[in-house]
Amino acid sequence: MRNPYQYPLRSRKAIIEYLTSGFRYDRGYHERYSLSFDVKAYNVDLDFDHLWEKYSKEYMPDHWECGNRLSYKKLAKEKYEEVKENLWDWGQEGAWRNVDDGDCYRMLWSGTVFDTKFGLAGRSGGHLVVTEWNNYSLDGTSEDFDRDLEEMGWEDLRNLYKMVCQWEVDFTSENASAEVEYQAAFTFFVNIVDPEWYAEHDNSQCELPLRGGCCVENEVRT
């Protein structure tokens, strides 16, 4: 797959100017971060039909047709009414885990992983901040950050610049909203609907491959 990110700057001066312009977040003495990204989630759609579309498109087996799919969807609608008030929290929690756990957002496209610590700042937690990167503290004053960048070796400076280029693409309000929807859908269907569905159905019978016909409950009709 082609690298979706771009790193156009080449000079040390240009890179430092880029890193010190537009990313800072300050809110009182206790919230001072050199690298922050606005990830407030707006217009999140947690209606059943939207969650069903997101989940079924990616995870619902293509051969689950007719009876199986309709039966599963009927159960899902019933469970949705029971738990819909929890969907926003599940979506937010899942979206944060996706950032905080694993190496996905600690890795350059080339595969190099850096020790990185993230946090959330602001009254609503709408700012995703980088508190530490590759043993550099990023939660001090702007003067501290300026000094660290000036003293930073070229390889570290170049790698931090590349990471920020990637974060600037990944950490947006639009992406955050989509991730909250995805995580809410995934948590709902996998943790709430699936256990009850599979407790009542034999997997070997429910997942019959479609062979030019329609899979209805326990038989294949051709």
Number of helices: 8
Unreliable stretches, pLDDT < 50, 5 or more residues?
207-222
Share in helix: 40-55%
Write the H/E string, N to C: HEEEHHHEEEHHHHEE
The helix-and-strand class reads: alpha+beta
Question: How much strand?
Answer: 5-15%
- Count of domains: 1
Shape field: elongated
What gyration radius follows from the Cα positions, in whole Å? Answer: 23 Å
Main beta sheet, described? 4 strands, antiparallel
Number of strands: 8
Description:
- The chain is of the alpha+beta class.
- The chain has one domain.
- 50% of the residues lie in helices and 13% in strands.
- The chain has 8 helices and 8 strands, in the order αβββαααβββααααββ.
- Strands 3, 4, 5 and 6 form a 4-stranded antiparallel beta sheet that branches. A two-stranded antiparallel sheet has the order 1-2. A two-stranded antiparallel sheet has the order 7-8.
- Strand 7 and strand 8 form a beta hairpin.
- Helix 2 crosses helix 7, helix 3 crosses helix 7 and helix 4 crosses helix 7.
- The radius of gyration is 23 Å and the shape is elongated.
Jot down its keywords.
two-stranded antiparallel ribbon, 222 residues, four-stranded antiparallel sheet, elongated, alpha+beta, 8 helices
